[in-house]
Amino acid sequence: MPGRLSRMTTKATLIAVTLDCAEPRRLAEFYSKITGFEVQYAEDEYAGIGDGTTMFFFQRVPDRKPSSWPGPDKQMHLDFRVPDVAKAVAEYLELGATKPEFQPGDGYVTLADPEGHLFDVCPPREE
Fold first, then answer.
1. How far is CA 25 from CA 17, 61, 74, 103, in A?
2. d(Cα 87, Cα 109) in Å, to the nearest integer?
3. What is the value of pTM for the model shown?
4. CATH number where 108 lies
5. Which residue in 37, 46, 86, 104 has its CB near the most CB atoms, within 10 A?
């Protein structure tokens, strides 16, 4: 079958996404509020939130600089589905997110968290 590996590949299980940041506690609190995940661990150098299945960790990297947006140095972003995009965007802006001028999507909104990590706020799936 084309595209298949000729031997079995070891399956990996994603346990967490880790974001480099200057203030792990602050970013953990921000994402805790928008996801509803509890802060599981919070120190000056490292913090984590999760629901027992999905985890986000925040690791202190004091000299980290956010990528430009739009721009070629963006490496990744997060996507979050919400029931009401406009309401969620307003709430996230109150929590410290910012809304870049450039918005590439139709139906979703790109925001930046308080340290400049990009994330999309996406509407419910149409069924």
1. 16, 13, 23, 29
2. 11
3. 0.86
4. 3.10.180.10
5. 37
As for how many domains the chain has, the answer is 2
State yes or no: cis peptide before 70, omega within 30 of 0.
yes
- Bridge partners of 69, per DSSP, are none
Residues in the chain, overall count: 127
* pLDDT, tens digit, 9 for 90 and up, residues 54-103: 999 999 998 988 888 888 887 889 999 999 999 999 999 999 999 999 99
87 and 56 in a common domain: no
Residue 63's identity, in one-letter code, is D
46 residue type, one letter: Y
Nearest to 58 by CA among 70, 40, 75: 40
- Cα–Cα distance for residue pair 37/27, rounded to 1 Å: 13
DSSP 3-state assignment of 10? coil
Q: Tell me: do 56 and 79 sit in the same domain.
A: no
Residue 8 placed within a domain: no
Q: Tokens 């969620």 map to which residue?
A: 88
Question: What is the side-by-side order of every strand in the sheet holding 109-112?
Answer: 78-81, 118-122, 109-112
**Cβ atoms of residues 75 and 67 within 8 Å:** yes
